């Protein structure tokens, strides 16, 4: 431990104040504006979701959530997230590792591709799958062709009633697409900042590639990874646009939580819609809680590292 | 052990032979949600009594054009119950899932119930909206869905156009200027009829909603008769929402028979009563007479008499670059 390291600790309040030279009223005005903005756009809507959800009493609230249609929507949403999040987690770690630790041709292209789901509208993402896998798309035209190449494959697909869009696989695909960049985008800057010295040291000391990853890289990126997974999961469960295009909106079969909320709202069941919406709001609050905890843990870990 | 296994298998077979679980998917347009919830339960009961089989009908709702597009793209509907014949024609032409003459397979051009377009206004009719001429007044804000995606919105457009033609001795230019003024008054175009009802009734936008008659009655029921009232114009259109079995899908699911019966039962006394109770005009004359007080009498023109055919109306008015595209400019 070096004495200089202590200067990294939280500075004294007085010195913090001196960071800006603005007069007090400017600072208060700025804080006030931020608070008003937050309450108008975040707190009030959030509270109103819960107020509306319980407008017809606790009984009605649980009656709505107990409905088989609501259950099927909740199950489908969890199912889609349970597939999409681990896949994107594995992919995100691989991509971030490749990009941060190695130099290769086409690295920039890979980076751009990872960002694609951020820049493409979710509705377009859904439409892409309709165009590829729909009955008038490549897959559909192949399955319905009079003389398909590989007739055994076409027969097999038809016999098993192979369906992608307007069925669960399409919903999972759309969810994977829109949540694709979250983990990778979280890890790439972190891993780039950490550099490759520790991995190189591990290799020199005789660790295998797998050991290097498991014992050196993973512990370093642990908190960043968890952070990415949380964001990825929140988006996976809340996604509306892309999923609504590929779902077909069959009640009790292909409606996810966000689509079920829309259906209830359109049934004039406004209280019911808000009751189900409150689930997503709860999810957001839990996400926020875990996120704060993770950030706290991360800061603590960094501090102990500095102290060591 | 093996005999026990065989016995279990046998029992399972016997059970499944006794009561089959049949699943149907009905892809429908926007305002029929409540109608088919009630009808599906009635049909399941009827089918159980007739054959002993359990039938569960799943529902999917949205703008009629959008729903037809989903079926074309592979949404595996056993039956479609859409807002207008052209949308089912599109499924037949583009995806070849049912023959071109599908409309001849059931009575009344495969339309078991009809409806029309009426006005829904706020209680007391503060803007004094009586007929189509009031809807194009500059001080009136009109809510209606997008005719590109919604069936009801296409009927509403054609009803207004038919009125304008009638008033101007079938002068197309005058009718076009009438319809231009009408859509200048529209602040928001939702994609389906239900969306525009919510916009008007729940979100309080607009002075008048151009709505399906059944949708207007349902809004009175849901939001309270003390909030809105229905205004019947002097002339409107006979809206015919047809139904059809989607042959190829039903064949693949082995549901052709039950799907056909499902649609035929709409013409039965019970089916017609359910339709009338949900404010769709029944075809059966005796039942129509029984529920006559539900429906205001007004002059109804038919699509065929004013526009020839759906293919014609679609081509002229709603296709890309058609009259609607020429006259509609989004308002700020």
Specify the CATH homologous superfamily of the largest domain in chain B: Periplasmic binding protein-like II
Kindly estimate the percentage of residues of chain A that lie in beta strands according to DSSP: under 5%
Please provide the count of β strands of chain A.
Answer: 0
What is the count of structural domains of chain A? 2
Say what oligomer this is: heterodimer
Quick one: biggest sheet of chain B? 5 strands, mixed
Radius of gyration of chain B, rounded? Answer: 22 Å
Q: Return the CATH class of the largest domain in chain B.
A: Alpha Beta
Sequence stretches where pLDDT stays below 50 over 5 or more residues of chain B: 12-16
In brief, what are we looking at here?
The complex is a heterodimer of chains A (308) and B (332). Chain A has 308 residues and is an all-alpha fold.
Structure commentary:
The complex is a heterodimer of chains A (308) and B (332). Chain A is mainly α. Chain A is built from 15 helices and no strands. In chain A, helix 6 packs across helix 9 (168-179), helix 9 (168-179) crosses helix 12 and helix 11 (197-204) packs antiparallel against helix 12. Chain B folds into 2 domains: 2-113 and 241-294, D-Maltodextrin-Binding Protein, domain 2; 117-237 and 302-327, Periplasmic binding protein-like II (D-Maltodextrin-Binding Protein, domain 2), CATH 3.40.190.10. In chain B, the strands form 4 sheets. Chain B has a 5-stranded mixed beta sheet. Residues 12-16 of chain B have low confidence and may be disordered. Chains A and B meet through helix 14 of A and strand 2, helix 9 and helix 10 of B.
